Structure to design on (228 residues):
């Protein structure tokens, strides 16, 4: 009887085991493990996910800064070419500079014309008139090598020019200043003599004075001025 019970128990156990075993085996093969990330890991993953966007923003910012700081080439300003002012040649007569020429003229100009060599030189050069010739005519016609005539002292007429102005009721011209008188005298030499090829005492003689000795006297004054 005991043996029968044992056999019966073994059979029942076997049957129960055969029923439970497939279920357990099936559950074992279909079970999946899910890993739950910690809050720190989740935060790190989120930062990694956003990193490309941050990098792009940084790159865009650097590009913007580079563009802002990039030097824009400014257009070159071309300086206007200055036209050189006319310069009076310093060695227009022989080996003398302008200053030396003025000093020579001043050594022969006395009385009211003292120190006016620069005025004679200036207007003579501007009109291409020989300054020695101009001063020589003045010395001969109106003095000033020692004492100037009344035409100079009262009418600023340095070369005995005739014309408007009525110097002391005569036919000689009168000028408001000494410089204007000197300028008018030299312009007169240019327009009425030089422009017609009369640029030496000999060529000017027949028109400037009735005396044929006039040219010789002018040449003498010119030599004195040059040698002073």
């Amino acid at each position: 009887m005991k043996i029968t019970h044992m056999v019966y128990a073994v059979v029942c156990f076997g049957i129960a085991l055969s029923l439970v075993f497939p279920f357990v085996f099936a559950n074992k093969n279909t079970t999946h493990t899910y890993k739950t990330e910690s809050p720190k890991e989740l935060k790190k993953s989120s930062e990694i996910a956003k990193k490309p966007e941050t990098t792009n923003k940084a790159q865009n910012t650097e590009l913007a800064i580079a563009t802002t700081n990039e030097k824009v080439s400014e257009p070159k300003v071309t300086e206007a070419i200055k036209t050189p002012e006319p310069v009076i040649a310093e060695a227009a007569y022989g080996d003398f500079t302008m200053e030396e020429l003025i000093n020579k003229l001043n050594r022969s100009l006395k009385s009211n014309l003292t120190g006016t060599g620069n005025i004679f030189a200036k207007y003579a050069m501007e009109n291409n008139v020989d300054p020695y010739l101009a001063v020589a005519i003045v010395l001969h016609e109106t003095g000033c090598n020692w004492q100037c005539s009344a035409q100079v002292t009262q009418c600023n007429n340095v070369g005995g020019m005739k014309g408007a102005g009525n110097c002391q009721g005569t036919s000689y011209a009168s000028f408001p200043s000494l410089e204007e008188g000197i300028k008018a005298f030299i312009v007169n030499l240019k327009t009425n003599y030089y422009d017609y090829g009369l640029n030496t005492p000999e060529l000017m003689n027949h028109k400037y004075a009735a005396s044929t000795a006039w040219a010789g006297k002018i040449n003498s004054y010119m030599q004195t001025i040059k040698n002073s």
User: Anything to note?
Assistant: The two ends are 177 Å apart (CA to CA).
